[in-house]
């Protein structure tokens, strides 16, 4: 079996074999993904894809922690990273440290991820200096959806590149061991990936990155509002509809449960 992924081993994969990352929110999914992935992210996207909220903004820290504990029980070898939810870290480095401490102590995660670049660099440094590995997240930052007014791509004009490049540099300089770059045009993603000394993990950010991440429900066809950049590798939503329709028909026709799923009496000749 493969050895446990660590932060230094992950970081050393810069410009190496592309890093395979996915989100996970539950124990059974973590068990399935763990042997196949380098990193499992308990992303705040769970607010939308699991809890049906309109954005990640309302996500409650305690709810995220409960999911993270479940994922930890199923994650044996992949690097486990947990998002810091909106409002739990932005006010100050101390606020971020207190939240990140809860994540590390209560879930068994190996690292946290937070959104923001230049504005969060001091916080990234504060956490790393105190022993907490941090991933950055720049470009499209879903927690700022109300500032942008939507989830459109970033950096599609060269004039808009500099602040995003500055953000990526700032968190990497501050000690982040990796940076997620979301929803940016390919040439910008390539420029950031070439510039940074740590792995750049793309989502909607082209194949130029050092690795990729997707929201598991999006790629499995479980979420009906998946963004354009998602490739659907399965249609599990359709498969569930098919299975449950068959079950409903069976129940209505009294075809389920059948003899194989039915207990008899112990002394009726072995049928039980
Ligand atoms: O919350 C999330 O799922 C993320 C990603 C990078 C996919 O932040
Ligand atoms: Na996130």
UniProtKB/TrEMBL annotation:
<dbReference type="GO" id="GO:0003864">
    <property type="term" value="F:3-methyl-2-oxobutanoate hydroxymethyltransferase activity"/>
</dbReference>
<keyword id="KW-0566">Pantothenate biosynthesis</keyword>
<keyword id="KW-0489">Methyltransferase</keyword>
<feature type="binding site">
    <location>
        <position position="83"/>
    </location>
    <ligand>
        <name>Mg(2+)</name>
    </ligand>
</feature>
<dbReference type="InterPro" id="IPR040442">
    <property type="entry name" value="Pyrv_kinase-like_dom_sf"/>
</dbReference>
<feature type="binding site">
    <location>
        <position position="115"/>
    </location>
    <ligand>
        <name>Mg(2+)</name>
    </ligand>
</feature>
<feature type="active site" description="Proton acceptor">
    <location>
        <position position="182"/>
    </location>
</feature>
<comment type="subunit">
    <text>Homodecamer; pentamer of dimers.</text>
</comment>
<feature type="binding site">
    <location>
        <position position="113"/>
    </location>
    <ligand>
        <name>3-methyl-2-oxobutanoate</name>
    </ligand>
</feature>
<keyword id="KW-0963">Cytoplasm</keyword>
<feature type="binding site">
    <location>
        <position position="44"/>
    </location>
    <ligand>
        <name>Mg(2+)</name>
    </ligand>
</feature>
<dbReference type="Pfam" id="PF02548">
    <property type="entry name" value="Pantoate_transf"/>
</dbReference>
<comment type="function">
    <text>Catalyzes the reversible reaction in which hydroxymethyl group from 5,10-methylenetetrahydrofolate is transferred onto alpha-ketoisovalerate to form ketopantoate.</text>
</comment>
<comment type="similarity">
    <text>Belongs to the PanB family.</text>
</comment>
<keyword id="KW-0808">Transferase</keyword>
<dbReference type="GO" id="GO:0015940">
    <property type="term" value="P:pantothenate biosynthetic process"/>
</dbReference>
<feature type="binding site">
    <location>
        <begin position="44"/>
        <end position="45"/>
    </location>
    <ligand>
        <name>3-methyl-2-oxobutanoate</name>
    </ligand>
</feature>
<keyword id="KW-0460">Magnesium</keyword>
<dbReference type="InterPro" id="IPR015813">
    <property type="entry name" value="Pyrv/PenolPyrv_kinase-like_dom"/>
</dbReference>
<dbReference type="GO" id="GO:0000287">
    <property type="term" value="F:magnesium ion binding"/>
</dbReference>
<dbReference type="GO" id="GO:0032259">
    <property type="term" value="P:methylation"/>
</dbReference>
<dbReference type="InterPro" id="IPR003700">
    <property type="entry name" value="Pantoate_hydroxy_MeTrfase"/>
</dbReference>
<keyword id="KW-0479">Metal-binding</keyword>
<dbReference type="GO" id="GO:0008168">
    <property type="term" value="F:methyltransferase activity"/>
</dbReference>
<protein>
    <recommendedName>
        <fullName>3-methyl-2-oxobutanoate hydroxymethyltransferase</fullName>
        <ecNumber>2.1.2.11</ecNumber>
    </recommendedName>
</protein>
<dbReference type="GO" id="GO:0005737">
    <property type="term" value="C:cytoplasm"/>
</dbReference>
<comment type="pathway">
    <text>Cofactor biosynthesis; (R)-pantothenate biosynthesis; (R)-pantoate from 3-methyl-2-oxobutanoate: step 1/2.</text>
</comment>
<feature type="binding site">
    <location>
        <position position="83"/>
    </location>
    <ligand>
        <name>3-methyl-2-oxobutanoate</name>
    </ligand>
</feature>
């Amino acid at each position: 079996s493969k050895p446990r992924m660590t932060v230094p081993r992950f970081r050393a994969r810069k410009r190496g074999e592309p890093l395979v990352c996915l989100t996970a929110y539950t124990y059974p999914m973590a068990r399935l993904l763990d042997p196949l992935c380098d990193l499992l992210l308990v992303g705040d996207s769970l607010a939308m894809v699991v809890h049906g909220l309109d954005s990640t903004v309302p996500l409650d820290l305690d709810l995220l922690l409960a999911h993270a504990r479940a994922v930890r029980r199923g994650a044996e070898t992949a690097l486990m990273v947990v998002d810091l939810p909106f409002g739990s870290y932005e006010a100050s480095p101390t606020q971020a440290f207190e939240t990140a401490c809860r994540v590390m102590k209560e879930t068994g995660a190996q690292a946290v991820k937070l959104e923001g670049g230049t504005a969060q660099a001091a916080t990234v440094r504060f956490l790393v200096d105190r022993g907490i590995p941090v991933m950055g997240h720049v470009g499209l930052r879903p927690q700022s959806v109300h500032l942008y007014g939507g989830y459109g791509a970033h950096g599609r004009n060269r004039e808009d590149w500099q602040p995003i490049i500055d953000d990526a540099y700032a968190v990497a300089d501050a000690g982040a061991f990796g940076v997620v770059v979301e929803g940016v045009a390919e040439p910008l993603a390539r420029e950031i990936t070439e510039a940074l000394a740590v792995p750049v993990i793309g989502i909607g950010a082209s194949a130029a990155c050092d690795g990729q991440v997707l929201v598991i429900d999006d790629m499995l066809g479980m979420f009906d509002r998946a963004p354009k950049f998602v490739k659907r590798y399965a249609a599990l939503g359709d498969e569930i509809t098919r299975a449950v329709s068959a079950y409903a028909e069976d129940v209505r026709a009294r075809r389920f449960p059948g003899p194989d799923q039915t207990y008899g009496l112990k002394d009726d000749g072995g049928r039980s």
